[in-house]
Amino acid sequence: MQSPHLLILAQAQGQVSPMMNLVFIGVMVLIFWFIVLRPQFNEAKKHREFVGGLKAGDEVVTAGGLFGKVVSIDGAIAQVEVARGTKVRIDRNKLHPVSGSEGEASSDSSKDKKDA
């Protein structure tokens, strides 16, 4: 245990207290969490909710950029019609809502309900 006199002398000599280093690291971790991790967690949660609520008739865009309509869902695989009569099987997790579609609007409205 250091006496307060030694701490004052150490600070007077230009040495930074080890506690200040820990506080600095804690603040940096907190800033990193707010800027990087928290938005990613929120986006991942939103995507999980979308994938969990997928149903036939939803308009989606694949990770590769194909637009289509969900025809059926079988477990982790969704069958998506990308053109008339052209159906492809796609991993559900690779589907995203089309901007402005009903699925995105419903997830936004559920978010509004949570915020209220």
Question: Which secondary structure elements does this structure contain, and how are they paired or packed?
Answer:
Layout: H1 4-12, H2 18-52, E1 59-62, E2 67-74, E3 77-83, E4 86-91, E5 95-97, H3 102-115
Antiparallel strand pairs: 1-2, 1-5, 2-3, 3-4
GO biological process, one term: protein transport
Transmembrane segments: 20-37
InterPro entries: Preprotein_translocase_YajC
Spans of at least 5 consecutive residues with low confidence:
103-116
The string of secondary-structure elements, in order, is HHEEEEEH
Number of domains: 2
Rg, Cα atoms, Å:
25 Å
| Ends apart, CA distance between termini | 51 Å
Gross morphology: rod-shaped
Helix content: 40-55%
Strand order of the largest sheet: 4-3-2-1-5
Task: Please give the CATH class of the largest domain.
Answer: Mainly Beta
Oligomeric form: single chain
Q: What is the CATH architecture assignment of the largest domain?
A: Roll
Largest sheet: 5 strands, antiparallel
Q: How many DSSP helices?
A: 3
Give average pLDDT, whole number: 84
Helix/strand/pairing category: alpha+beta
Number of strands: 5
CATH topology of the largest domain: SH3 type barrels
Please provide a written account of the structure.
The structure is a single chain. A hairpin with a 2-residue loop joins strand 3 (77-83) and strand 4 (86-91). Mean pLDDT is 84; it is low at 103-116. This protein has two domains: 17-53; 55-100, SH3 type barrels (Roll), CATH 2.30.30. The chain has a five-stranded antiparallel beta sheet with strand order 4-3-2-1-5. It is an alpha+beta fold and 116 residues long. The chain is 50% helix and 24% strand. Residues 93-116 are annotated as: Disordered.
